[in-house]
Fold this sequence. Notes:
By secondary structure, the chain is an alpha+beta fold. The protein has one domain (5-132). The protein contains one helix and six strands. The radius of gyration is 17 Å and the shape is elongated. The mean pLDDT is 91. Bound molecules: zinc ion (2 copies). Residues 100, 102-103, 105, 123, 125-126, 128 line the site of one zinc ion (ZN).
Amino acid sequence: xxxxxxRIYFHGYExxxxxxxxxxxxxxxxxxxxxxxxxGHPSEESAQAALREKVLEDVARxxxxxxxxxxxxxxxxxxxxxxxxxxxxxxxxxxxxSHCFExxxxxxxxxxxxxxxxxxxxxxxxxxxGCFYNGL
Length: 136
Ligand SMILES: [Zn+2]
Ligand SMILES: [Zn+2]
């Protein structure tokens, strides 16, 4: 049996949908969140729409916790990389970068915070910021 799976990103979550017998199921993952599932949809689009709704509910409930987890991961990376750590601030503008230079995942203005040292957005997935960018 072959199952075709589709993967998209939504606010940093990986949404995976696939057809199981006659209906579509889906799961949403993020390293800082509990796994989210939905089942029994007539189409892939409706499974994705249900997952997006559940992700938005999850973020609305846990945004402060998720921001805390991202900032802790960032602080850990800065310490391990011997970078000067100057805390973080909440981003007051829409993300200018659409993808993280390191892990390539899309950034999200829901919880992308700004590094106090380089003023770049901290990736919600891998916690990279401009302090780790060597591309110039
Ligand atoms: Zn990243
Ligand atoms: Zn930085």
